[in-house]
What does this fold into?
Amino acid sequence: PAALSLFNHPEEMTGYALRNAAPESQLALFDGERGKMADYLRKLAADEAERKKVFGPVEDALEKWASLQGTREQQSAVFGSVEEAAKFADSASSAPERLDPFGLFSRNALAAAQAIIPLSLFFIFVLIVVLRDRLPRADEILLGLLLAVIGMGLFNIGIELGLAKLGNQVGEKIPSSFKAVELVDQKKTIHDFQPGVVQTAVTEKGEKRAFFFLKEKDEYRQIPYHERDYNPDTRQYTYVPTRGPLFGATGGLGGILVVLLFAFVLGYAATLAEPALNALGATVEELTVGAFRKSLLMQTVALGVGGGIAIGVAKIIWDIPLVWLLGPPYLLLLFITYLSTEEFVNIGWDSAGVTTGPITVPLVLAMGLGISGQVGVVEGFGILAMASVCPILSVLAVGLFVNRRRAAALREPEPSGKGVAA
It folds into this structure.
């Protein structure tokens, strides 16, 4: 009863126990009787409604659990035989992940509507009720709002399927430049594994290493053996390939420099693609009458963001407290702000807002969380904080240079006129 209070219903608790508990502990749900558990699993395999209560709405969830985690008895109850379970596991591991188009579109369309419609209704309310004005060209405005909802929904889908996944995959694998990382997405399960094939080798330091040979197509691969990865109940061995370090020894400076350079290029390129930065650059060029060109501002901000992201990644790799990295730049900013003119102070501090744009954030956060997961840091946040302060520094520094150059140009004497009648 105490455990059941943690779940919404008994079936949810049963599904959690089957997925997470050890085989002997799972029997506690069935009064310790293996036959009773087998009958229950056969019932789940035949009853779709009951199966969804236990394992959720994900298709083939019961079969995936039984083939990858279940004991031989559980596999026989679900599939009829252990051989059929092995066939399913092989096909499931090679099959691509299925996409739910309806859930994808409905989820992102709802998020887009929640972001746009309430704000638009508030504007219309203020215009009509508070300001007592009418809505000009209502048909065009409503069409624009509809297109905005559709566009944001499609954009959210692109972020979910593209940028976020790409950033996460890169973040998980880029630490292989300086350390060995596990390639979880390439995990393999060897069925009916025989521990007798395991061999032992001795390293130069006298350390023993267990391994075995795995035949894949026409090639033989040497696979390290770890006893913890072998399940004697299911006779399955789970192998997760590793990669790295690609540049030098583990923790070498060369590999870390590769990661920092990658982070800089990522931040630089993603910032140049931000729509908000293009709009800010055009406004600044107009405000300064061409003294601070749009291209110069975009390059300055992009370089600042790239440098900030590189520092943020270094913070994750070496687990540096964020206050040590944020304190000195902001103290320096107070001094530079005092020296700068009002227009460049406003431009510089506003330029930090582009780091929260829709292109930069998904890539940077996903990359940061991926790297933190591989290097063993609790969390991967703080990169955006560094990516915000560094462009302010770069813009204000360039602003001081532009002001000095403009002042020098104003001090130059005008050329004397020639041929002018007295």
Observations:
- The chain has a mean pLDDT of 85.
- Residues 138-173 form the longest helix (36 residues).
